[in-house]
Amino acid sequence: MNIFQVAYKNLLRRKTRTLFTIAGIMLSTWVLVTLLGFNKGYEQSLNENIEGMGFQIVLTAKGCPYEAATLMLKGGTGLRYMPEALVRDVAGRAEVASATDMLMHAEFDPNKGESGGTIVYLGIDPQTYPEMKPYLQFNQGEWFGADSAAEIVLGYEAAELEQREAGDVMLLPGSDQEFKVTGVLKRTGTQDDGMIFLPLKSAQQIFRKEGLLTMLGLRLKQDADQNIFEEDLYTLPDVQVVSMAQVKNTILSLVASAKIIVLSIAFIAFLIAMFGVLNTVLMSVFERFQEIGILKSIGALPRDVFQMILIETTLLCALGSLAGIIFAYLFSGFSEMVVRYLLPFAPNGSLIIIGWPTIIFAFVSITLVGVIGGVYPSLRAASIRPLDSIRSAE
Amino acid sequence: MAFIEAKNLTKIYTRGTEKIQALHKANFTVERGAIIAVTGASGSGKTTLVNVLGCLDNPTSGSLVIDGQTVFEDKVHLSESALTIVRRKIFGYVFQKFFLLPTLTVKENILLPAVFQPGLRANSARLTEVLQMLGLDKRANHLPGQLSGGEMQRTAIARALINNPSVLIADEPTGNLDSKRSEEIKNLLLELNQKQNLTIILVTHNPDLAKIGNQTLELKDGIIQ
Amino acid sequence: MRKIFGFLILFLLIGFGLAAVGCDLNDPDRDILRIGTYYTSLSPRITYKTEYLSLTKLGGEKTLRAVEERLGDKFSGLYETIDVPYTLYTLYQGEKIIGYVHGINQKGKYGGLQVFLAYDTRGVIKHFYYQKLTSRKAAELRSAEFAGQFAGLSLQDFLSYAVQTGSGGSAGVQAIQNPSPEDAADFLATLRAVKKNLILMDIFVFNKEGKELP
């Protein structure tokens, strides 16, 4: 038998209390791991999402909304156009790995809903657009064949609303021409779900915007300096440069304040763990006042008693934090659902990523914090004089 | 030279502003292998005397020499750790309450002193010997809650003996037992004294138990009569 | 513990249950106010309660087969499935139920049709309208004349109507004029939607016990 076993058996003495203490530490660890996992997961997913947009830089005409949602709110107004020639020049620069031309168009459809509604169309280049957005997958069918074909591809929700499947025909408002649906995209959770895509040339022709574009999506070469390139673009007249890196930084700076709150909560979780442990261990030391005195009378040095109580504390904390980590891991899906429900903007992908560094950090820090909470009771125990304790029994 | 030699041992407690003289200039010697019965009314200073004698407490003044080693000299107070070292070497303690750890078995309770004393004399042979000596061999794997009062006190005695102490200090060892079990413990102490030449310092109210002492220290108001 | 599990499962179901889309009123408060004028000419103080129903919940496959048999056509395509949620609006005047509003999605030639019917408490159509429509003849189909032809009809009138050929039905059904005879697809789709709407309402409200119809 050794001091470790004695400590372990001491914990078994008050099973309910031990269990509740472990549960407390477990909850703190659970919160901590989940929050740290969220901290990591959110940023990573946001990065992936922005990467997934396909473009690093989007050029639009000055003052032009490039988000479909904004366009709909504005009832389809506010679009401005860039001449194709200008854009050709940018797309041809050495730093550009690939570029894709787009024409966005919003049309009022009087037959959508009781009082009509706005439908947003995106004319795209079937040669370049799909490869910039590799995450777009088809539920049915495929991209249109030619640049000027009378064909369309529907985002999942647009197709559902229009009850369209590949092979069906569709009318576009203000046009008599029938368009054939060549494909229906899978749900992406982005604005693409509600979009109606058509070949760029067809779009320019139907919406009478020949030679005009609303957007140019750019992807730069690996070795190109994005900052210098962007600076250069700013000199172009009447062109707005939307850098996804900027968008990301804006979102991240918004999230930074949320992060501070998150970390404060994590800190509170630490404190709760520490005071919970302190309270429990102190109580158990007071309860065993006489017993500790006897241990000293039979040869335990103050440091032996200190060690024994600290081992008890460490065991409690280690078991609790281990359980908390397991819980956090098992319920990360559930936590993610709650976070998604609560957050106004949550990127796609895993919001809570629990990696080894998080696990090790949580385990070590919670255990350490708990052990710190156990130091005072251990010192109290170590300073018990056998005589006092024995006398108190008589 | 006597095994234990106490000179002018005095102990004064302070309770609030009041000073209580629990022991006043006690002078006595104890020979190796003796049984000393310490008697007296409640509050007469019996427990104080054995606590000082058993190095559980420092005296206020006086000196104490055990086995040729000076443990206390006037006003020199030993630290808690130093007292522990002396206790480990010389004493085994038995109290009126048994103070067994409820989650440890009889065997584990007996071996408890070994946990805190690395390189201890206790080994499995010694454990078997002690278990047999105290008639606990069949109870070795039971928990304290499954024992009778007598068995619990025997376990406590076994725990005190596991390290082969020179002196057993027993403070009211039969205080919690009925007359039959008290008799058992009395015989056991006599046997230990005779067979192992164990020096026993026995604090008791029980006149029958006190009779086994070959020397009696009767205390009244902290003074040996 | 069991409760917690139930809660979790509920959450998972909600998470995965968003596959099919139903047919809701775009702006229920405003729409119901307008529809209310077909019930009472006095300034109507109509309130409504919204309920979500689906064939999955009401007997599943068996109910689906029954609907298909009465409709005389199979449910088909990506969007006409057993798990489509249907939204039923029950209209109240005070404590009293005065009618129901229910719409369904129907595949049209050029796009989705959302065909809404307002019923009285016996299951007779009070008002017909398209919430959404994509058609070359949208204006004609949306006309008050066209819509007016449905008022007063009920499931009884449509029971013998064959949705694929557009033949049969009571005199009232046969009298419904197609405003664009040169293109019958959206007209036929509309009548199919009306019949399907009537059958579903029969299951949801008017003949819940599933009694054989006379």
From TrEMBL, chain A:
<protein>
    <submittedName>
        <fullName>Macrolide ABC transporter permease protein</fullName>
    </submittedName>
</protein>
<feature type="transmembrane region" description="Helical">
    <location>
        <begin position="305"/>
        <end position="331"/>
    </location>
</feature>
<feature type="transmembrane region" description="Helical">
    <location>
        <begin position="19"/>
        <end position="38"/>
    </location>
</feature>
<feature type="domain" description="ABC3 transporter permease C-terminal">
    <location>
        <begin position="264"/>
        <end position="385"/>
    </location>
</feature>
<keyword id="KW-0812">Transmembrane</keyword>
<keyword id="KW-0472">Membrane</keyword>
<comment type="similarity">
    <text>Belongs to the ABC-4 integral membrane protein family.</text>
</comment>
<dbReference type="InterPro" id="IPR050250">
    <property type="entry name" value="Macrolide_Exporter_MacB"/>
</dbReference>
<dbReference type="InterPro" id="IPR025857">
    <property type="entry name" value="MacB_PCD"/>
</dbReference>
<keyword id="KW-1003">Cell membrane</keyword>
<feature type="transmembrane region" description="Helical">
    <location>
        <begin position="260"/>
        <end position="285"/>
    </location>
</feature>
<feature type="domain" description="MacB-like periplasmic core">
    <location>
        <begin position="18"/>
        <end position="232"/>
    </location>
</feature>
<dbReference type="GO" id="GO:0005886">
    <property type="term" value="C:plasma membrane"/>
</dbReference>
<dbReference type="Pfam" id="PF12704">
    <property type="entry name" value="MacB_PCD"/>
</dbReference>
<dbReference type="InterPro" id="IPR003838">
    <property type="entry name" value="ABC3_permease_C"/>
</dbReference>
Automatic annotation (TrEMBL), chain B:
<dbReference type="GO" id="GO:0022857">
    <property type="term" value="F:transmembrane transporter activity"/>
</dbReference>
<feature type="domain" description="ABC transporter">
    <location>
        <begin position="4"/>
        <end position="225"/>
    </location>
</feature>
<dbReference type="GO" id="GO:0005524">
    <property type="term" value="F:ATP binding"/>
</dbReference>
<dbReference type="GO" id="GO:0016887">
    <property type="term" value="F:ATP hydrolysis activity"/>
</dbReference>
<dbReference type="InterPro" id="IPR017911">
    <property type="entry name" value="MacB-like_ATP-bd"/>
</dbReference>
<keyword id="KW-0547">Nucleotide-binding</keyword>
<dbReference type="InterPro" id="IPR003439">
    <property type="entry name" value="ABC_transporter-like_ATP-bd"/>
</dbReference>
<dbReference type="InterPro" id="IPR003593">
    <property type="entry name" value="AAA+_ATPase"/>
</dbReference>
<dbReference type="Pfam" id="PF00005">
    <property type="entry name" value="ABC_tran"/>
</dbReference>
<protein>
    <submittedName>
        <fullName>Macrolide ABC transporter ATP-binding protein</fullName>
    </submittedName>
</protein>
<dbReference type="GO" id="GO:0098796">
    <property type="term" value="C:membrane protein complex"/>
</dbReference>
<comment type="similarity">
    <text>Belongs to the ABC transporter superfamily.</text>
</comment>
<keyword id="KW-0813">Transport</keyword>
<dbReference type="InterPro" id="IPR027417">
    <property type="entry name" value="P-loop_NTPase"/>
</dbReference>
<keyword id="KW-0067">ATP-binding</keyword>
Automatic annotation (TrEMBL), chain C:
<protein>
    <recommendedName>
        <fullName>Lipoprotein</fullName>
    </recommendedName>
</protein>
